[in-house]
Amino acid sequence: MQKSPATRQTSPATRLIRAIDQVSYWLGKSSAWLIVALMAVVSIEVFKRYILNAPTAWIFDLNNMLYGTLFMLAGAYTLAQGGHVRADFVYLYLRPRAQAALDLLLYLLFFLPGIAGLVYAGWSYAADSWRIGEHSTVTAEGPPIYHFKTVIPVAGALVLLQGLAEIVRCIECLRTGKWPERLSDVEEIDVVEGQLAHSKFVDEESRQVALGSAHAIDDAARHRSVMSAGSAEGSSAKGSAPEGNASERDASGAPAKERQDSA
């Protein structure tokens, strides 16, 4: 008896991937609020420095710690969204199973050893910082930084956890021939679509062609589909052909070439 799509979507592998994705997703969303704190700190410091002439000595360290924490904690979220930079000019045109096999090989050869090394080294780095009560040396009385260095192994462990989910995702794709779905979120392509929708300088046909090409590239880059060479151009040409032929017909519906032959 063949299983329904709903049943296949609730397989143990899919549930594991979705659970880890949720952890990375909400952690990334939560850490994103640090940018608000960073903006407030910078604004207050600019006011104090240039208006009150009373700069704060340790503000540089605080800025680094806020931005560094945001950057590191967002790593697992970015991996869960498939948003890390990759050289995919060939990868885009591979079939899902070929993509999964390549990804799995790279995860095993480079990702796991590299991130495991980061967690191990970061743990020792943070432990030494806590042991000596380390403070920043940027200023004479720098703030403590051992809590900040603790973020290094924590963020590395979270990226490693998400990497395990990506490995399971690759194995699942090798088994089924289709990439498991990722959690959806607002993406840059949505901004592009909104800008084109309100543009007065782009006609509807050009807008649809641009959006189709952009979505095809974005979907392939995020493991949702596979690019086909010339697919966007081909669909555009097919869509515009009837309009071009229609302009060559007379009122009776006869093509212009037939009208010339009869004349």
Question: In a few lines, what is going on in this structure?
Answer:
The chain has 263 residues and is mostly helical. It has helices at residues 5-9, 12-31, 34-50, 59-80, 96-132, 146-176, 188-197, 204-221, 231-246, 256-262. The chain has 2 domains: 12-176, no CATH class; 191-241, no CATH class.
Strand-helix topology:
Layout: H1 5-9, H2 12-31, H3 34-50, H4 59-80, H5 96-132, H6 146-176, H7 188-197, H8 204-221, H9 231-246, H10 256-262
Helix pairs in contact: 2-4, 2-6, 3-4, 4-6, 5-6, 7-8, 8-9
Report what the structure shows.
70% of the residues lie in helices and 0% in strands. The chain has helices at 5-9, 12-31, 34-50, 59-80, 96-132, 146-176, 188-197, 204-221, 231-246, 256-262. The longest helix is centred in the middle third of the chain and has 37 residues, at 96-132. By secondary structure, it is mainly alpha-helical. The protein folds into two domains: 12-176, no CATH class; 191-241, no CATH class. Helix 3 (34-50) packs antiparallel against helix 4. It has ten helices and no strands.
